[in-house]
């Protein structure tokens, strides 16, 4: 099915309605400005881990304290 196309002014006036329609129908909406595509609004993409936010799970590496100053002997400029 071809995505629905709406102008940016119409999208601005009815954004909440469009978001609800996307949620219910799981179909994308293309937003145009002067006939040119500027955005595509669609349902969240499911991944193996679940939701969109789940894609970033376990991707952060904790390196320790990054706020406290380093000791003088750790700076190359002090050698």
What would you say about this model in short?
This protein is of the alpha+beta class and 79 residues long. The chain has 2 helices and 3 strands, in the order E-H-H-E-E. The longest helix has 11 residues.
Structure description:
The protein is α+β, with helices and mostly antiparallel strands and 79 residues long. It has one domain: YefM-like domain (YefM-like fold, 3-Layer(aba) Sandwich). Helices cover 22% and strands 19% of the residues. The protein has helices at residues 8-13, 15-25, and strands spanning 4-7, 29-33, 36-41. It has a three-stranded mixed β-sheet. The longest helix is centred in the first third of the chain and has 11 residues, at 15-25. The model has no long low-confidence stretch (mean pLDDT 81).
Features:
79 residues, elongated, YefM-like fold, alpha+beta
User: What oligomerization state is this entry in?
Assistant: single chain
Q: What is the name of the CATH class?
A: Alpha Beta
Largest sheet: 3 strands, mixed
Major β-sheet strand ordering: 1-2-3
Estimate the strand proportion.
15-25%
Percent helix range: 10-25%
At CATH level 2, the architecture is: 3-Layer(aba) Sandwich
Provide the domain count: 1
- The overall pLDDT, averaged over residues, is 81
- The CATH homologous superfamily is called YefM-like domain
Give the topology.
Layout: E1 4-7, H1 8-13, H2 15-25, E2 29-33, E3 36-41
Parallel strand pairs: 1-2
Antiparallel strand pairs: 2-3
